[in-house]
Amino acid sequence: MMIWLSRAVRFGLPLFVSAIFLDSLRYKFTDAPETQVIFGRLDGWAAGWGAPGLFDHAGLFSQYVIGSAELLASTLLLIGFIPAFRRFQLLGSALGLAIMTGAVSFHLFTPLGIDPNSDGGGLFVAACLVWLSCLTLLVIKRQEALALACDLVRAIIPKTR
Fold first, then answer.
1. Are 157 and 27 in contact (CB under 8 A)?
2. What pTM value is reported for the model?
3. Cβ(90)–Cβ(13) under 8 Å?
4. Which long-range contacts (CB under 8 A, 24 or more apart) does 101-107 make?
5. What is the DSSP string of 117-134?
6. 101, 95 in Cβ contact below 8 A?
7. 3-state secondary structure 44-76
8. Domain assignment present for 161
């Protein structure tokens, strides 16, 4: 029973995260009004802190940048189903966790709030579930994640003799 549950989680969570991310692209990449409300409110908040344009169409954290990061995370999560590329799923989980940490934080700690589009908080709940899913994947595969992190550090920081 536990083996079946473990397999279901390892297979289901990446699919769930990818589905949420890929579904959101139709809003982010088409300039949908719902997206304009969210990023417009965040840009107004950032302007109050001296960073106008941060969330604007051409800003560092625009809907296009965030959408592209979500597309990359989804791609990595899905490629990770191929046995030779399993480590990519860890990278997708880490990227998804980073994206959703930002999303949840902005919902909680900015004027954006939990219900910016009057959807009953559905967007916030989805962000929390994706965050938990990515974290769960990283915890379940923590030994692989640690090995990947060590390999990345070794690749970036050369040995000195």
1. no
2. 0.91
3. no
4. 101/131, 102/61, 103/127, 103/131, 104/128, 104/131, 106/42
5. TSSTTHHHHHHHHHHHHH
6. no
7. HHHHHCCCCCCCCCCCCCCHHHHHHHHHHHHHH
8. no
Query: Is the residue at 54 inside a domain?
Result: yes
Q: How many domains are contained in the chain?
A: 1
pLDDT in tens, the chain (161 residues): 778 777 888 899 999 999 999 999 999 999 999 999 999 999 999 999 999 999 998 999 999 999 999 999 999 999 999 999 999 999 999 999 999 999 999 999 999 999 988 889 999 999 999 999 999 999 999 999 999 899 989 999 988 76
Going by the DSSP 8-state scheme, the letter that residue 83 receives in this structure is: G
Cβ atoms of residues 118 and 39 within 8 Å: no
Query: Contact 92/76 with Cβ under 8 angstroms?
Result: yes
**Does 9 map to a domain?**
yes
- For the packed helices 122-140 and 86-109, what is the interaxial angle rounded to 10 degrees? 140
Angle (CA) 19 135 83, round 5°: 65
Residue 22: domain span: 2-156
Closest CA to 32 of 54, 56, 60, 63: 63
